[in-house]
Design brief:
Chain lengths: 253, 229
């Protein structure tokens, strides 16, 4: 692909903290290379702001290779920007043209309050995981490979669900701000494996209870989450979660 | 875990919507099937007889109680969910996510449901209230049984006023889109994730949401244009 430079107009959400009201600020960035990542473009903008003596824009990032789930920008109306199966850090500036205006917002959900600018507090996801997204095993020697036979298709489906990086794009895209795709990925991942079997029922009941407590909306199966997920987590996980929940709630004492 | 905890959880509320929705889908089949008797072209004899059976026999009368329970549950739970889901965003987005990955009607179930509810109020005033409470002119079937002449009431309702026909067609279109999402969503909510069954239920769902509302819409239309004798 041909390399090119571009001048852009950015409209970025600035908010001092969760109590203050935020608003959009407009910035011009010039000479952006099409080879840069979206976050590198933000680094350039922040350098510019620091030189001007202004407050740099706060945004979450960590690995910058699309696997940690830290980056979280709602770019031109889509979490993680225009590309499919992609995180903000892996979005490259060749997705944009010279002269474009790009609107950047934080994830918007009451369960993800803004800490500053584009950084939101996603610790609600951590608390959901703590409520049941684990297995309890005694540590000791590693068991022999294949001592626990697992069906290949179950292993594949569990692995696909485990690809969830917990970025929260599903919540950001959902009209109900529902966390069902995230919770369903975590529940499916463990429910499909024999290691997850002993805590199968308590896991799904506790994780849903925690999800509701955190103030996420309900799922209405629209599919917006699946379309925006950078890891391609399937909507069928939500149906599996529904099944797991229904069965567990019927047999629980 | 108490039953209250089950049915007030977000998944439990979905289950209430799905299960009551499936009951209402079954009701639609019965309703459309019985009403299709207007096309028997016998001056409404078969239709009036069917309507008389439904109003007189104990089995449909008991099922009717269930119908009212489920319809109220579906409406109340639906409106509550819509209000609760809408309250979860806080600050709205400046640029909306739009159509990516989801159909407009799947995001508009509350709106479509409300249109159907308003239609239902008018529909009950037209037929159910006269038939149960305020009275309908009687007619005698060939076998000598006196019944409500609901066929003539239908003809009178739909032949005189194009506005009523348009209202019914709007109600049917809303129902069609409501079902296009609701049918398959109900089964997903009940936990169907097997790809073969999901594909099958989607196909049946789309077929159902076209055929049944179309049959309903054709009733006022065919009466207005005088295709029913």
């Amino acid at each position: 692909m041909e390399h090119y430079n571009m001048n852009l107009t950015l409209k970025v959400w600035r908010q001092e903290n969760s109590d203050k009201k935020g608003k959009f600020e407009t910035y011009k960035v010039n000479g952006i290379s099409s080879e840069m990542s979206f976050l590198e473009m933000f680094d350039v903008l922040n350098e510019q702001l620091i030189h001007e003596g202004k407050d740099a824009i706060a945004f979450d990032h960590d690995c910058r290779e699309g696997i940690c789930g830290a980056c979280s920008m709602y770019i031109n109306g889509k979490p993680h920007g225009p590309w499919e199966l992609n995180t903000t850090c892996q979005l490259h500036m060749r997705a944009f043209k010279d002269g474009d205006t790009i609107v950047v917002e934080p994830w918007r959900a009451k369960a993800f309050p803004v800490i500053k600018d584009l950084v939101t507090d996603r610790s609600s996801f951590d608390r959901i995981i703590q409520s049941g997204g684990y297995i309890s095993v005694n540590t000791g020697n590693a068991v022999d490979a294949n001592s626990l036979p697992i069906k290949k298709d179950h292993a594949d489906a569990a692995f696909a669900a485990a690809a969830c990086i917990g970025c929260g794009a599903c919540v950001a895209a959902c009209k109900n701000s529902s966390a069902m795709l995230f919770v369903s990925a975590k529940v499916s991942h463990l429910a499909l494996l024999p290691q997850g079997e002993p805590e199968k029922e308590s896991r799904v009941l506790n994780m849903i209870a925690q999800m509701d407590k955190e103030g996420f909306g309900g799922c209405t199966n629209t599919g917006a989450c699946e379309a925006t997920c950078p890891k391609g987590i399937s909507l069928s996980n939500i149906a599996r979660l529904n099944k797991e929940y229904t069965l567990a709630s019927l047999i629980s004492e | 875990m108490t039953w209250k905890q089950v049915f007030t959880s977000s998944v439990g509320q979905k289950l209430t919507m799905g299960l009551s929705g499936i009951f209402l889908i079954l009701f639609l089949i019965v309703h459309a099937g019985l009403n299709a008797c207007i096309w028997a072209m016998d001056g409404g004899v078969m239709f009036n007889r069917a309507a008389h059976f439904m109003g007189d026999n104990v089995v449909p009368r008991v099922l009717e109680i269930g119908l009212f329970v489920f319809i109220l549950l579906h409406i109340i739970q639906g409106l509550m969910l819509e209000a609760s889901n809408r309250s979860k965003r806080g600050t709205p987005y400046a640029v909306s996510y739009g159509n990516r990955g989801s159909k407009w009607y799947s995001r508009s179930m509350g709106l479509l449901g409300t249109i159907i509810l308003l239609f239902l109020v008018v529909h009950m005033v037209h037929f159910w209230i006269p038939s149960r409470f305020t009275g309908v002119a009687e007619t005698t079937l060939p076998n000598g049984v006196e019944v409500h002449d609901l066929f003539s009431l239908m003809m009178a309702t739909f032949q005189e006023n194009i506005g009523v026909v348009i209202l019914y067609v709007i109600g049917c279109i809303s129902l069609a889109y409501h079902l296009a999402h609701g049918f398959q969503s109900a089964f997903r909510t009940m936990g169907v994730h097997n790809k073969r069954y999901v594909a099958m239920l989607k196909a049946i769902g789309y077929g159902f949401s076209v055929i049944v509302p179309l049959a309903f819409a054709m009733m006022p239309i065919s009466m207005y244009f005088g295709w029913v004798k």
